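Lab channel / #folding
Pinned by the channel admin:
"Please post every new chain as: sequence first, then the structure tokens as a reply. Keep commentary short and put observations after the output so the thread stays searchable."

First post following the new format, from NK:
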Amino acid sequence: MNDSTNSPLSPVALIAGVTGGIGSDVAHRLAAAGWRVAGYARDSGRLGELREKLSELHVIEADATRHEQVEAAVQSTVTHFGRLDAYIHCVGSILIKPAHLTKIEEWQRVMDLNLNSAFYGLKAAVVPMQAQGGGSVVLISSVAAQTGLPGHEAIAAAKGGVNGLVLAAAASYAPRNIRINAIAPGLVDTPLAASLLASDQARQFSEKMHPLGKVGRPANVGSLVVWLLSADADWVTGQIWSVDGGLAHLRPRPKA
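Reply from TO:
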């Protein structure tokens, strides 16, 4: 779209986890495409830094694991812009531990950050979308929910729940012209993954896991998000899109 971000005709998007690597990439892309953009996250300092780069961004301090704060973020967006056309949920975590070493508190936190928060966001976002006659929701899943990876029990269970949520909700809201999809990335080079890519050895190990021999970039995910929100994707719903360097579905021959 070529509309100014100040135009009341421009579509409105709300991004959860807007200060993260993927969330901020999506914010920049949507703003450049003429969307009016709002975003929420917990860290007010990082929200302020992002606001300096995207002056028209409507920022909201909110915790994605608190349903009342998520509902308030959606309401703030609708109050500020008058509508909500898209909701993108970029909140998540990484925990790599086998089940017997995972503390119950860790399990519960993974569920809160990855599954519960996604449900809260979707539940709140579809309310104004139904009232205005349609919209689009994109959740972030994980390759861990599509293939067996050792030590990924908690995150695989949480993101598997996200996949199920997408399928059921897409069926529920298709008659109301609300499209719901998810993207399932492999390891993406973001601050969230920094500990897994901290050394050359660790990075090389992660790269070799992916058939294409490299980890992902935020742009690999962000560009697909923007397409899924576009008119070109208006016949797409209930899909889990793999963006993972082939990790979930390919088994190439080992290199000699």
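NK: Confidence is low (pLDDT under 50) at residues 1-6.
TO: also worth noting, The radius of gyration is 18 Å.
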